[in-house]
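Predict both folds.
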Amino acid sequence: MRTGKILREAAGQYRFTDDPLRGLRLVVGALLLAGTAVAVLLAVMGVAPRALLLAGALWALYGFVVGLISGVLEPVIDFAAHALSNVGLTRAGGGYSAIESMVARGHYEAAAEAYRERAQNRRDRTEATLRRAALLAGPLGIPAAAVMELKNLREGASKPLPPDDDVRIGLVLVDLYDYRLNDPGRAMAELRRLLDHYPDSRHVRHMRRLLTALKSDHFGD
């Protein structure tokens, strides 16, 4: 930020609003000049000969205040502005923007491998595996491998997955079974499992509608 400010000043584009602390320095300086003028006037008139000592004290105070603004407040404000400007740019767990860039460029195999490596982190395991499964089932065209990885994720966990994660994995499996592998029976069995295990899930109404639709599509009313 400070570098940008210097460049704007050099280009003649500096504005008062670019440095809000400049106003504080001007106010302090104006008050000091007014106080110094009054002190000198009192000393010259003989009303308060020691008023010049007050002027000296005011200048010392000005130096302290300016040093505080430049040495403490400005760095703190610069740091806070930089930190706030980056809030929300990185997802929890470090973000996936680099891998998403590979996907956008069509480097699907490299992205899938990156997601596999990311899934080694326990905190990112579910999200990274779901993203990898989407690549396997979509651009890479191997939905059976996606199903296998999702089942391994669920069944190979050392402890039961959180309900929300289990439901997310189950819904993806339903999609893979029905639309990618043409196996509506397994899709309906997975939905039935989810409904039986998580009757209070926030997705329960969606799962019931989906199960009804699958039965209607494949077996009629």
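Second protein follows, with its predicted structure tokens after the sequence.
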Amino acid sequence: MIKILDLNLWRYNDFENRLKNFLKVIKIKNPDVVFLQEVQIDTSISFFSQVEIIKKKLDKKLGYRYTLHSTISLKDHQSGKKLKIPIQHGMAILSKHPILNSFEYYLQKNTSELEPRSILCFDLEINNEIHKFANIHFANNEKLAKVQLKEFLNFLVKRKEKRILVGDFNMFKLSNYFKKNKNSLFSEYNLSNDFKKYISYKKDSGTLDYILLPKKYYFNELVCLEEYLSDHNGLYIEIKNLT
């Protein structure tokens, strides 16, 4: 069984208060790997990435030895304000298990997008098996997010591989889109929101955060976390391998 925790970290907004809750959740749920989006290095606050800060505050006995941080873009504006020092903005993972391989796939940039988007791909060795993952944060526009999802799945087809896709898909209607295209690129995957209905973005009473699971795996448990961790709800998922 593989235990996954996913959260859009929401940058440094009220981070000290949320961090306490997040550390408690990690300790209780004890995931194998934590997926994070909107992770930053803001040198006006710390010279360490937020994922490194989380790791440093966790009890070493929990075994989170590995981190990976990807800077997708440098932000010189945030929340409508000009920044004196640009912030490194991206994604990260925190893992108990060795990272055997990693790479970043940059999605084609649409002219209407303000910032680039990439996908953080990595392989972990868990219980003597290699499992392939992708950390997702698509464009904040449903139409563009659909294009990016198709682009990445086509990329995986060309590589002749399937990955466990986890993260913020920025698509409220992914379940409907998935069902309409179930005989296409999606035929080899199962969607978390079809396994269990949940709301991950309470502000709009919808779901933006998902797991797309290759059919060699199956969902064993899914919990949409109610603790104050972010403007998104965190997801805790347990999956098992059919083979």
